[in-house]
Every structure is written in structure tokens, then in C-alpha cells.
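Quick start: read one record
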Amino acid sequence: MKLKKKTYYTKAFRQQALEKVYNRGDRTVQAIADDLNINSWTLKNWMKLPKNVVEGQADLMTKRPQDWNQSERFQLILDSQGKAGETLHAWCREQGIFPHHLHAWRKAFETGTSETAVSRADWRELQVSHQALQRELKRKEKALAEAAALLVLQKKYQALWEEKDA
């Protein structure tokens, strides 16, 4: 039976891995683990740990990628020019971002689209609001149609009485 060598990861690596997992979008934990070349169960176990155990020190906390404003993102894109491979990865670790953030930001700038992500709760709230507005619009359209029908009937009634008087 072959014993597997125990691998130890630095606190900074753990923190960055968890940041990547928590900001993964529609990617799976398995996909993130494959990118980082670690076991997915290791990553899932780190997710279960209390924050202070993984973080260790408060100075490791960096600004989250979604907290960067447009001008800061643009500056990071400019600063990353000419860097590739391990140099780019090391520079990104210093900045507290991942290379895929730079690629996404660059693409957003090139296409002119904004990365305004909407959370599920906000999305649900927007859907409920939309449905309520649709119901109110239908109600008002029915009331308007009823008022128009009453107006037509009133005119017909007046026309009928005018004929009888004449």
C-alpha cells in the first residue's frame, strides 16, 4: 500500500483559494480545485472552517475583486501589461486578485459592458416587483376598458333619449 505524502498549504494560499471559491460565479468547486491543482475535498473542508482559522492574520485580507471600482480596475489592467505566466500570477497574488479577474475586466472594457452582477435575492426582488407591476397594469387596463364601455353606453343612452324627445 502506497502512502500519500501530506501536503501543507500556506495561509495565504488557503485564503486566496477560498476567495476564488466564494467569487467563482457559475463555476463549480471541483473546477476551482482543478485550476489550483488541489483535491476538491480539501477545498470543501477549508470552506467549513471558521474564518479566523483560515485567515490567520487580518493583514492577509485584501480588497475583494468586486470592490474595485472601474478606474482601479483599469489601472490594474494597465499595470499587468507585459506580465505573463508565473510573473503575472505572482503579481496578481500581491494585488489580491486572480488572472481571470484581469481577463474579465479587460473584456468588459473592450466590449463596453459593465459587470454589475445581481445577487439571487436582488434578482428575485426584481422579479416580484415586475410581476406586481404587470398585475397593476392589467388591472388599470381593465378599469380603463370598463370606463370606456360606460362612456359609450352613456352616449348611446343620451342619443336614445334625444330621439324619443324629438
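Helices lie at 11-22, 29-36, 40-48, 51-55, 70-80, 85-95, 99-111, 120-165.
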